[in-house]
Amino acid sequence: MPAPQEDVDAIVAFVAGVQHAQRNALPDAFLDGFREDAVWTTAHGKRLTGLPEISAFTRKVLPPQADSPVTATYTVDLILFVRPDIAAVKIRQRPVARDDGRFLDEIFHGQEDPSALMAAHPEAVPGTPTYVLAKDGGVWRIAAAQNTQVLDVETLTAG
């Protein structure tokens, strides 16, 4: 479905806002991106239903991340407009060292069997979130999301 460039730009800006909120450990900014009835599944499989539950979890786990030596970049890989007001968004989430901006997942590139590295460096495993965004009143927000770690060897080692 063809989409107006302004919607594509708004979605890319939305994902940049998620990155900013995550990198700076800003719960309110992060939570502003959710619908009241949203469903969020964490990278470790915890399902959170509704903004109150997502908020309680976020306010517990996000603030301590401000002091973490690892943060992440979020890049839009693909946008599928299901309808003009619904978009499925694939994101490339790469762990990065906060002090020097070095991409930590590069240690896996070119490895035949990265399993030992994955066990030794879980902070370097990238993510591949999927957001289902709904446009309500001209604003894109998360209706449902799955934040998945990349464990597929071919994907992980290809870069």
What is the ordering of alpha helices and beta strands?
HHEEHEEHEEH
Q: Give Rg in angstroms.
A: 16 Å
Q: For the largest beta sheet, what order do the strands appear in spatially?
A: 2-1-6-5-4-3
Contiguous low-pLDDT stretches (5 residues minimum) are none
Overall 3D shape:
globular
- The helix content is 25-40%
Give the termini separation.
Answer: 29 Å
Structural class: alpha+beta
Count of beta strands: 6
Count of DSSP-assigned helices: 5
Mean model confidence by pLDDT: 95
The largest sheet is: 6 strands, mixed
Question: How much strand?
Answer: 25-35%
Textual characterization of the structure:
By secondary structure, the chain is α+β, with helices and mostly antiparallel strands. Helices cover 30% and strands 33% of the residues. Strands 2-1-6-5-4-3 form a 6-stranded mixed beta sheet. It is globular. The two termini are 29 Å apart. The mean pLDDT is 95.
